[in-house]
Design brief:
The structure is a single chain. This protein has about 280 residues and is mainly α. It is about 70% helix and about 0% strand. The longest helix has 27 residues. The model has no long low-confidence stretch (mean pLDDT about 85).
């Protein structure tokens, strides 16, 4: 029985000419790296998948007490404050996890990069798999909260996969940019947690967007909405909580800003990719 062999010939300028086709050719490597990251995430952990449940639940409880009870901020309509916070935490957890894991992915795979050729874009792409798994587990928590509060999901919850794609897109651009810069300048491993911590407070996770609009006014609100997570979070709340008005302006702005960041991230990543093996 003959065994099929694959021969890879590395030619001058082949990387530029066949780069996107190579991404498909190396799809099995993508799956292997994604499975490796998922296995590492939960390997030798005492609580296992509970680590995907405990942080968002504790964060929801703290934000509900601080912003809802102590600060007295209103919820949206008759929605329980805890449910409104968790509906905002879902996309934020997906964004922060995807940005954090992809931003440090290349440095964590230094041993692989320095040995064999493959499109390096596979590594930050595979790192997103863990974030999607955690997000799916958080969806189960959301279902439990809806049962607890006797809250029926609206029909527009069917739009959730598209909004999940938008949240991933919002993280992909900055993730590619940061992971490329992190290879050359290791300072960015300290900057990424700061960006995530700062972003949590400038995004409408713990409070409704109506509060921000009322406090800032329309002009400053337009600048505030340039943060793509504003549109993403508002979209999630529309889909999960059943608000009547779809936040079309915020969602379109989030899509445009996210696509611009993806183009910028791809440009910087591709421009620095060939030096990764030398400087990592």
């Amino acid at each position: 029985m003959s065994e099929a062999k694959t021969e890879v010939v590395i030619e001058p300028s082949r990387g530029a000419l066949h780069y996107w086709a190579d991404l498909w050719r190396y799809r099995e490597l993508f799956l292997i790296l994604a499975w490796r990251d998922i296995a590492v995430r939960y390997k030798q952990t005492v609580f296992g998948v509970l680590w995907a449940i405990i942080p968002p639940v504790l964060t929801m409880l703290i934000m509900t007490v601080v912003f809802g009870r102590v600060a007295g901020l209103p919820s949206q309509g008759d929605t329980p404050y805890a449910l409104m916070v968790f509906a905002g935490l879902l996309p934020w957890q997906l964004f922060s996890s995807a940005l954090g894991s992809s931003g440090n992915s290349l440095v964590g795979s230094a041993h692989l990069i320095s040995k064999v050729y493959f499109p390096r874009l596979i590594i930050p792409g595979a790192a997103l798999a863990v974030s999607l798994i955690d997000f799916c587990i958080s969806l189960a928590v959301l279902a439990g909260l809806m049962i607890w509060f006797h809250f029926l999901p609206p029909l527009q919850i069917l739009a959730l996969p598209l909004l999940m794609l938008l949240a991933t897109l919002a993280a992909l651009g900055p993730g590619l940019l940061l992971t490329a810069l992190n290879v050359t300048y290791r300072d960015f491993r300290f900057i990424i947690p700061f960006i995530l911590q700062f972003g949590l407070y400038v995004s409408p996770v713990a409070f409704s967007n109506d509060v921000v609009r009322a406090k800032l006014g329309e002009t400053l609100y337009l600048l505030y909405a340039l943060n793509p997570m504003v549109g993403v979070i508002e979209g999630f709340r529309w889909a999960i909580l059943g608000h009547a008005i779809f936040p079309i302006f915020e969602v379109i702005l989030a899509l445009v800003v996210s696509l611009l960041f993806v183009l910028l991230g791809l440009k910087v990543f591709r421009a620095t990719e060939r030096t990764f093996a030398d400087v990592i």
